[in-house]
Write a structure and sequence with these properties.
Elements (H helix, E strand, L loop, with lengths): L1 H28 L7 E10 L7 E9 L4 E6 L2 E6 H6 L13 E4 L5 E5 L5 E5 L2
Length: about 120
């Protein structure tokens, strides 16, 4: 009888420990991104000047080895690190499909030109 009680106590303790371990892992996993994905953390728009909107965006990425946070088709994405280190921004395809990409003269960013002539300028900080 004592042996049976001891077995039940050990089993119950093991189950409680397993449940706590599962809950602990779940809490740690919340807030983490899957490898190779990005999310927008903050987005601020300032339209106080006529015909001009200044947008500031902060993204959080979980990139795999050799890749770094960048922009692809107007959305945050993990891109080849070489693109960022060499400042050849247009190689990461930052503009939408119908837009043309041009490097800024000082390579501090790029412009996306829409078919109607509207230009979006992005600088990297």
């Amino acid at each position: 009888m004592q042996l049976l009680r001891l077995a039940w106590a050990v089993t119950a303790s093991a189950l409680c420990f397993l449940l706590l371990l599962i809950l602990h892992n779940q809490v740690l996993r919340e807030g983490q991104l899957a490898a190779g994905t990005c999310e927008i953390v903050t987005l601020d728009r300032d339209s106080s000047q006529p015909r001009r909107t200044v947008a500031r965006q902060t993204a959080r990425c979980a990139c795999r080895k050799g890749r770094i946070a960048g922009t692809t088709r107007g959305r945050p994405a993990c891109v080849d690190g070489r693109i960022v280190w060499t400042r050849q921004w247009c190689e990461m395809s930052p503009c939408l499909d119908d837009e043309g990409c041009d490097l800024l003269v000082n390579q501090s960013g790029w412009t996306c030109t829409q078919p109607g002539g509207r230009v979006k300028t992005t600088t990297v900080s």
